[in-house]
Amino acid sequence: MKASDNHPLIDDYLSSVCGCVKARELHKEIRQEMAGHLEELVHAKRGEGWDEEAAAQWAIRQMGDPEAVGRELNKVHKPRIPWGLVCWVAVLLVISLVAMYAVELAYATNENSAFASFHFLLRKAQFTMIGLLIMALLLFFDYRKLLNYSWAIYACTLLVSLAAIVWGPQVNGMKGYLYFGPVSIDWINVSPFLFILAAAGSLHNRDSSKRSLALQHLLFVFIPASVYLIAPSMSSLLIYASAYLLLLCAVRTGWFAAGSQALVFGAIGGLYIVSGYGRMRLEAFFHRYDHSMDAGYMYVQIDDAIRSAGWWGHGFAAVNKKLPYIHSDTIFTYLIYSMGWLAGGVIVTCAVWFAVHLLRILVEVRDGYGKLLISGLSALLMVQFIWSIGMSLGVLPILGGASLPFVSYGGSHLLVEMAAMGVIFSVYRRKDTIRIKG
C-alpha cells in the first residue's frame, strides 16, 4: 500500500510511530504493516456506514498512542552492541600496546638490533586508532549490502593477489606485498578475509546442483589454494582453508561436498610439503636439535625462552638477543619470556573468552547471511590465535604470516582484523532489526 493512498490522519500517525523507532531501515516495513492493519479497520467501519475521517480516527484509537507504540517497537528492534565482545577486543588492544612498549624497550637496550630505534608503540597506537575508526564505520554500515558485491570482492581479491605475486617484491621468500610509496600492504595475508567474505555470499545463494558444487571446488578451493602455493604462503593457505571448511559446516553442506573440498586443499598443501623448502621446514620442526644451526634455530630458541621463563619471567622488557622477530612471529614467546607464564595464561584466557563471546553472538543472530559472515570471520581469527600460540610454544610448525590477532605488530593484519570485527558488530547490531521470513 502506498503512503499516498493513506488518509492524512493515518500518515501522521505512522510518522509519529516511526519517529520513536531508531532503526530507520525498519521504517518502511513498519509503515506498510501498520498501514495494512489500519486500512482493515477503516474498511470495516466504512462498511457500517461511517465516513472516512471518522473511520480513520476510530482505527487510530484502536492502535493506541503513537508514541507508546513507537517506544515499544523501538525496544523490540533497538540496534544492539555486543559489549562483552567489545570489552575483550579492548583488552587485547591494551595488551598489544603494553607488548609493543616492552618490545621497543628491549630492542633499544640491544644496540646491535636492527630495530633499536624503531618506535613500535607509537606505530601500533597509530594503527590501532585507524583500526578503531574502520571498525566504527563498518559498525554502522549495513552488512547486507556486501551480499550483492560478493563476486566483485572475489574478482578484485584474486586479480590484486595475482598482481602482487607477479609484480610485487619478494619479502622473506614470499611475494604478495603491495607498496604505495612508504605504505606497504601484506596483501596475501589480507586476502583470506576477502575470499571468506565472497565465499559467505556465494554459499548463501548456493543450490544443490552438481554445477554449483563444481564451481565451489574451482573458485573457492582450487584457485585460492593455488595462489597461496605460488606465493608461497602456507600460513594463508592454512588459515583460509580452515575457515572455509568451517564455513561449509555452518551451511550444513553434505559430507561428500565438504570432504571432497578438504581433499583438494590437502592435495595442494601436500605439494608445498613435498617441495624442498616445505620438507626442510617440517623436518626442522620434528628434529629441531639436529638442525639447530639452520632451519631448527628458531624452534630451539623458543624452547629455551619458554623453559627459562618461570611464572614471572625475566622482567618487563627483558632482552633476549637470540629470539628473533619478538614484535611479530614470536611475540607470544617473548611475552612469556619477559613476563612469565602468568602473562601467557592471561593472553590465552583472553583468547578463550573472545571465542566464547563470538560463539554467543553467532547463536543469537538469525539472519542466514549474517551467520555465515560471523562464522567465516570468527574462524579466521580463531585459527590465527590457535596457530600463532601453538607455534610460539614450539608445538606447531612456524609459518610466517600467522600473527597473534590484535597483539602482534603489523598494520595490514591489525586493520583487516579490526575491519572483520566491524562487520561482525554490524551483523549483531541489526540482529533485531531484520525481519526473518519464515
Could you describe the largest sheet, including whether it forms a barrel?
2 strands, antiparallel
What portion of the residues fall into strands of 2 or more residues? under 5%
What is the percent of helical residues? 55-70%
Q: Structural class of the secondary structure composition?
A: mainly alpha
- Helices and strands, in order, run as HHHHHHHEEEEHHHHHHHHH
Average of the residue pLDDT scores: 89
Radius of gyration from CA coordinates: 27 Å
Shape: elongated
Residue ranges: pLDDT <50 for 5 or more in a row?
none
Distance between the termini: 22 Å
Strand order of the largest sheet: 1-2
How many DSSP H or I helices?
A: 16
Please tally the β strands and state the result.
4
Structural notes for this entry:
The chain has 438 residues and is mainly α. The chain is 68% helix and 3% strand. It has 16 helices and four strands. A two-stranded antiparallel ribbon has the order 1-2. Strands 3-4 form a two-stranded antiparallel ribbon. Helix 2 (27-47) packs across helix 3 and helix 14 runs antiparallel to helix 15 (368-392). The longest helix has 34 residues, at 331-364. It starts with 7 loop residues before the first helix and ends in a 9-residue tail after the last helix.
